[in-house]
Amino acid sequence: MAPVSLHSVKKAYGEVQILHGIDVDIADGEFIVLVGPSGCGKSTLLRMIAGLETITKGDIRIGDRVVNDLEPKDRDIAMVFQNYALYPHMTVATNMGFSLEHRGASKAEIAERVKWAADILDLSHLLDRYPRQLSGGQRQRVAMGRAIVRNPQVFLFDEPLSNLDAKLRVVMRGEIKALHHRLGVTTVYVTHDQIEAMTMADRIVVMHAGKVEQIGAPLELYDRPANLFVAGFIGSPAMNILGGTIAGAEFKAAGVTLPLPAGVTATGAASYGIRPEHFQLSPQGLPAVVSLVEPMGSETQVTMTLGEHVVTGVFRERVAARPGETIHILPDLAAVHLFDATTGQRIN
Amino acid sequence: MRTDLSPRLRVALYGLMCVLLIPFVFPTWWMITSSVKPISDIFAFPPDLWPRRFDFSTYQRVFELQPFARQYWNSAYIAAIVTAGTMVVSSMAGYAFARIKFPFSNAIFMIVLLGLLIPSEVTIVPLFQMFLGWGMINTHWPLILVPIFGAPSVFATFVMRQFFIALPGELEEAARVDGLGRFKIFWTIALPLAKPALGAVAIFTFLHSWNLYLEPIVFLSSTQMFTLPQALTQFTDAYGGAMWNIQLAAATMTAIPVLLVFIVAQKQFVEGLAHTGLKG
């Protein structure tokens, strides 16, 4: 186990700047998730930690060593790849013991470590099989087994669940988290799935266009997004964002005036953010015309037009309204987010 | 493979395949049956598809008229060395062109590919001069070195490159994380996975070397050094006329390894070319 520190890390391919100076400190044993849309640079950053990409500027430290110029094998890391990268011509046992074999471990030690990892991951009965004879979930576990067998200082996961179906993804999410609890190894996990990020991370690093938008605990990001990007990216269904103007204790958007929480001192153009579950049904509320009702069982998701804005509400109650009918909704003022219209930064 | 062809279409397809088989099967059949006919029966009219009389002494005569066993050995060992050498050179070169970034790699590969466009008849005289200078005329070295390092291995390099290009990059990256250097990645990961392509390279290299004709008649002059295709031209009578039945017996023995190799390895051959994207 070791902390990982990224200091002003930049990456450029020729003239094209991919990462614009990333600063992240990952504590020893922490599970950190890099999340962001496709092309934001999260996988590139992970590959730079692994040593599979060169670093244009800045420093990466693993433990107390600057690893910028070290080969991947000398960084004491293990990586789980998106497509698992299991060697097709080797059995599960050989795949898992391969790195130990090339580091000069004795046969007895390799067998012992492979058995240990296989027991943890419930792979003992599959050790003689080839990757082509395994299901997606089993391959995923073998890839993890290959990573843990060497007892590295850092685990790196590059979108490891993206090839699994939704049900298996939930199961494997739990297994990875349980494995982290058991082994306590510092883990950097890349995903574009914000549900994965929210459910697995100790802290999340939200990235966008080669920059870090916010770093924080999952609920911290959810409850207090630092800017419009994080507000829109974290949460499903996404936060409703309405453009308009702060005027005293009210927020004037196109076709609707929304109440503001007490103590808002900012004025002028801004964005008003409210999560779908923070709307309440109330006869005293604002009129909204229903366009779609999606009953989920435990809750009901309603798409509606509020003033000139299309918004989404999620209600614990069963909503009987039909498309075209009007319901009345009120925002929970304690859960209103305000963002500067120009910079997109949070202002309340 | 199951197909949903209608019976009529199936019959038509099989009929077409039978017609297409004729130009391939008939000469082989004619060669084998004529090799056991007395020479007077070969030119009988109408021709006999099945010999009226069998004369197996033709096979014995092949070995009496020429040092045929020695020539057989010459062809076999040259083909074996050329096959092994080409597999080594083309797999390493193909891997380098496919997976290693180095300056002008694409341009260099294009230049290498140009070797395919130059007919061997164009280079044979300069090669003769070169090997003459090295004292290698009437040795087997030109028949070994030219195919391994010259134009014939370019196609093999191309096949291997196409295979290695399709190899997932993550496998190499995983190997790097596992502690392997470039050569070990090639040797322990890439090469074992390239078996189908290597198989295809081995088959067509062996066939090419086995059937080589122009080079042996330029570089070799003593019958002890001859290879089989060259030896086949030597079965003539005192007046230079071909001893057809003996020549065809020799040809049958020459063709057997080729047929065996292809029958045994045709699946590998087709798979290998399919992996390289060369399949039509």
Molecular structure report:
- The complex is a heterodimer of chains A (348) and B (280).
- In chain A, a hairpin with a 4-residue loop joins strand 15 and strand 16 (300-306).
- In chain A, helix 4 (136-148) runs parallel beside helix 5.
- Chain A contains eight helices and 19 strands.
- With 348 residues, chain A is of the alpha+beta class.
- With 280 residues, chain B is mainly α.
- Chain B has a single domain (67-274), classed as MetI-like (MetI-like fold).
- Chain B is built from 14 helices and no strands.
- In chain B, helix 1 packs across helix 14 (244-275), helix 4 packs parallel to helix 7 (141-149) and helix 11 packs antiparallel against helix 14.
- The longest helix of chain B is centred in the first third of the chain and has 32 residues, at 68-99.
- The two termini of chain B are 18 Å apart.
- The model of chain B has no long low-confidence stretch (mean pLDDT 89).
- Chains A and B meet through strand 6 of A and helix 9 and helix 10 of B.
- Chain B: The chain crosses the membrane at residues 12-32, 76-97, 109-132, 144-164, 185-207, 242-265.
- Chain B: Keywords: ATP-binding, Cell membrane, Membrane, Nucleotide-binding, Transmembrane, Transmembrane helix, Transport.
- Chain B: Residues 72-265 form the ABC transmembrane type-1 domain.
- Chain B: GO terms for molecular function: ATP binding.
- Chain B: It is a multi-pass membrane protein.
Topology:
The complex is a heterodimer of chains A (348) and B (280).
Chain A lengths: L3 E10 L2 E11 L4 E5 L6 H9 L6 E6 L2 E2 L10 E4 L11 H10 L5 H14 L15 H13 L5 E5 L7 H18 L2 E6 L2 H7 L2 E6 L2 E6 L1 H6 L4 H6 L6 E8 L2 E4 L2 E4 L8 E7 L4 E17 L4 E7 L2 E7 L10 E6 L5 E4 L8
Parallel strand pairs in A: 3-8, 3-9, 6-7, 7-8
Antiparallel strand pairs in A: 1-2, 1-4, 4-5, 9-10, 11-12, 11-14, 12-13, 14-19, 15-16, 15-18, 16-17
Helix pairs in contact in A: 2-3, 2-4, 3-4, 4-5
Chain B lengths: L6 H28 L4 H4 L14 H9 L2 H32 L5 H10 L5 H14 L7 H9 L2 H14 L3 H9 L4 H12 L1 H17 L2 H6 L8 H4 L12 H32 L5
Helix pairs in contact in B: 1-14, 3-14, 4-7, 4-8, 4-11, 8-11, 9-10, 11-14
